[in-house]
Amino acid sequence: MNNDNRNEEAVSPVIATILMVAITVVLAGVLYVWASSLAGESTGGGLDTYTFSDRDAAGDMSADGGDALVHIQMTSGDGLSWAVLKVSIVVDGGASYTCAEGDASADCTYSKDDDNNWETSEEITISEGDDTNMCGQDATGCEVVVTLTKLGVGEEDDKVIATVTAFADTA
């Protein structure tokens, strides 16, 4: 009779261990399926990462306006459609101006290439409007903070993708 008790005691921990392992495997499988379905249903635009560099537009600045200030070059990132890009600047901590593409009558303007996207290694030139003098009055130059905003499409919100601080030298 003593032998029968030992066999029953030895069987119980083995069964308990097998059940715990089975439950762990089932829970891991359920969590995996749940997590992979969440990832598959993601409708977000993904993580957009861009980097930009700046340089002075070179050349003398006049007190009349219409001068080129800085060049901004995309150094990394996926192509960015011009249709969803807003370019704005702040010169020497002053007012904020929204630049218009190719419209010299605006307070500031930017020029781009002729295609539909801003691609890596392409650059834009940001200039004063014809009747707006932002930087010509200082003998050394001015700080130009350029904010590049990707406009939201559909239910997406607008997203600032970069803020570039550049210096426009007047000489």
In words, what does this structure look like?
The chain is of the alpha+beta class. 23% of the residues lie in helices and 37% in strands. The protein is built from one helix and ten strands, in the order αββββββββββ. The strands form two sheets. It has an eight-stranded mixed β-sheet, with no helix packed on it. A two-stranded antiparallel ribbon has the order 3-7. A hairpin with an 8-residue loop joins β9 (141-150) and β10. The longest helix has 39 residues, at 2-40. It is rod-shaped. The mean pLDDT is 83.
Task: Give the key terms.
171 residues, alpha+beta, 8-stranded mixed sheet, two-stranded antiparallel ribbon, 10 strands
What is the rounded distance between the termini?
106 Å
Order of helices and strands: HEEEEEEEEEE
Alpha-beta classification: alpha+beta
**SS element count, helices:** 1
User: Based on the structure, what is the oligomeric state of the protein chains?
Assistant: single chain
Radius of gyration: 30 Å
Instruction: Tally the beta strands.
Output: 10
What is the general shape? Answer: rod-shaped
**Arithmetic mean pLDDT:** 83
Strand count, sense and closure of the main sheet?
Answer: 8 strands, mixed
Summarize the structure.
This protein has one helix and ten strands, in the order αββββββββββ. It is of the alpha+beta class.
SSE topology:
Blueprint: H1 2-40, E1 51-56, E2 68-76, E3 80-81, E4 85-91, E5 96-101, E6 108-111, E7 117-118, E8 123-128, E9 141-150, E10 159-169
Parallel strand pairs: 5-6
Antiparallel strand pairs: 1-2, 2-8, 3-7, 4-5, 4-9, 6-8, 9-10
